[in-house]
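Tokens for chain A. Residues wanted.
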């Protein structure tokens, strides 16, 4: 084969992959033993993703879904498309077409995470896969075609294997070069015939009637943001010059293209003519970092499972060390004898060693099973499989011990971790700030080592960070008081004439506050500000509350945060 000759390529296209990745993630959450990411009692849904999966769990069917990035629809489900939603629409236009549309923000990490096992599945049957982007991959067609008896046969085999894995609607295109193969997969296939083969040497004829806009939309072109913008500008200029098709662009003289559009234009001109000389670049599969241990017969006692995990945990940590990595977030998956699963991500303030891995397995058994040392509660059967995998890793050099030790911080970490290992996961708690309108409810205790934004077990699918980010009308802005009373302190706020000060329905103060009594001590008020209303649950007559906050400064210079709830006054906090 002469240099620059296009190589026969096979491209697999997964339409609307962001939606597929979302639905596959929701399916994992809906398995027995997994946490429900939908709406929880007493909490709000954390995101559009939680809403979509929660609605699906309750109704038994998937709602129309649209994945949005920069206020534009980048992917939508088939049910949304049936309602008139299209890729590239503005968010409000899509919602106008489909009022019941579930909006989900685009998440590249979610798409990559869901697509990684798909690529591994393809590599088991046809090695040498290039990951173009989540939902699109390419491989050289020659090897699979020779092994499976032809290009079409190879493509149908891969589509069949993916269909068995629950991935319907996959399209395959085979042509000279990845660019032409991608266009064949996108434009030449259908549900009835998901494989389209462009004969060798026929790329130019196949591409000729296509719009020049496919150059801007093609994922196989690669490049950074600057290249994408340059391509978009070139496509727009071609359209203004009256060049609407790839055939028209290919008919232009190469020298004139170079003079007008530069090297990027020459590259796109070659693609339009079917001369895609860039070969498929297979990825190097990542090292296998996860470990698992199976038990036959199933183990019923948590200590037995933890003891059996010691060698596997050592091997897990050693495997990470072999590639100069450490694990900072650990995913533990437990499988019961009846097929039920328990899955959780654990965090560490530093990095996991073998003992910490074993501790997390034991803690998960104790917490999820909910039967002390027995493994027959939440799982409802014995443990048959434990799988551990790194959810997040870091370079080992970032966690190497210092030459003269880490000082007090390292000693505190070791001491608290040792106590936690003896008492259990929630045996050592640290304070964090959560969401809410009242200061006392914003004080949350989380287990040592868990970052507050990932404390999902105690605070729902969104975690504390998501709770803090929610709108809390009436919440107190920064700076917050330093001393918050666990139980509000009763006070008595009076005017100069001795009458009780209150606030009417319009938020007007009945009299100027002059002094207040707290713990039997009378304090004169030198300055005050307010009131600021706090209105909660106006739709629920039984739990509705309407109160007002005041900031006051007494004669001793002390600053207080007072709350007037009807004719009852309390001190919520003090400013130090």
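Reply:
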């Amino acid at each position: 084969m002469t240099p620059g000759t296009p190589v026969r390529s096979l491209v697999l296209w997964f339409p609307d992959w962001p939606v597929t990745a979302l639905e596959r993630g929701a399916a994992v959450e809906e398995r027995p033993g997994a946490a429900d990411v939908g709406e929880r009692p007493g909490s709000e849904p954390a995101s559009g993703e939680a809403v979509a999966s929660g609605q699906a769990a309750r109704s038994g069917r998937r709602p129309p879904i649209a994945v949005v990035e920069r206020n534009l629809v980048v992917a939508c489900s088939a049910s949304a498309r049936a309602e008139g939603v299209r890729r590239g629409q503005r968010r409000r236009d899509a919602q106008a077409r489909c009022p019941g549309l579930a909006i989900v923000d685009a998440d590249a990490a979610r798409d990559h995470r869901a697509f990684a096992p798909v690529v591994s599945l393809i590599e088991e049957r046809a090695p040498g896969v290039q990951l173009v982007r989540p939902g699109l991959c390419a491989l050289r067609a020659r090897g699979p075609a020779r092994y499976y008896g032809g290009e079409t046969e190879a493509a149908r085999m891969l589509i069949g294997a993916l269909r068995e894995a629950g991935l319907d609607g996959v399209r395959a295109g085979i042509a000279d070069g990845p660019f032409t193969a991608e266009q064949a997969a996108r434009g030449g296939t259908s549900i009835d015939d998901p494989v389209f083969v462009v004969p060798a040497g026929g790329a130019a004829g196949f591409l000729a009637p296509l719009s020049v806009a496919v150059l801007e939309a093609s994922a196989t072109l690669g490049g950074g943001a600057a290249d994408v913008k340059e391509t978009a500008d070139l496509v727009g200029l071609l359209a203004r010059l009256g060049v609407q098709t790839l055939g028209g662009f290919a008919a232009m003289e190469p020298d004139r293209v170079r003079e007008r559009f530069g090297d990027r234009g020459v590259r796109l001109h070659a693609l339009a003519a079917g001369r895609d000389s860039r070969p498929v670049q297979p990825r190097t599969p990542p090292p296998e970092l996860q470990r698992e241990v199976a038990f036959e017969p199933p183990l019923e006692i948590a200590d037995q499972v933890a003891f059996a995990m010691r060698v596997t945990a050592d091997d897990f940590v050693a495997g990470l060390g072999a590639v100069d990595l450490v694990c900072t977030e650990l995913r533990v998956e437990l499988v019961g004898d009846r097929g039920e699963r328990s899955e959780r991500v654990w965090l560490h303030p530093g990095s996991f060693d073998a003992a910490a891995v074993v501790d997390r397995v034991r803690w998960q058994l104790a917490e999820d099973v909910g039967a002390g040392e027995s493994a027959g509660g939440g799982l409802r059967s014995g443990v048959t499989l434990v799988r551990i995998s790194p959810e997040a890793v870091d370079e080992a050099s970032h966690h190497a011990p210092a030459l003269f030790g880490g000082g007090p911080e390292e000693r505190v970490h070791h001491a608290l971790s040792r106590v936690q290992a003896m008492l259990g996961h929630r045996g050592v708690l640290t304070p964090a700030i959560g969401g809410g309108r009242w200061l006392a409810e914003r004080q949350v205790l989380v287990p040592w080592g868990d970052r507050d934004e990932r404390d999902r077990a105690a605070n729902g699918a969104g975690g504390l960070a998501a709770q803090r980010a929610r709108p809390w009308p009436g919440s107190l802005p920064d700076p917050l008081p330093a001393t918050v009373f666990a139980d509000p302190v009763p006070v008595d706020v009076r005017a100069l004439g001795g009458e009780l000060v209150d606030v009417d329905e319009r938020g007007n103060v009945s009299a100027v506050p002059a002094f207040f009594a707290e713990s039997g001590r009378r304090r004169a008020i030198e300055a005050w500000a307010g009131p600021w209303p706090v209105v909660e649950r106006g739709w629920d007559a039984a739990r509705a509350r309407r109160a007002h906050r005041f900031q006051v400064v007494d004669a001793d210079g002390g600053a207080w945060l007072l709350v007037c709830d009807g004719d009852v006054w309390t001190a919520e906090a003090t400013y130090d």
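Residues 28-47, 53-60, 370-377, 453-461 have pLDDT under 50 and may be disordered. Residues 405-472 form one domain.
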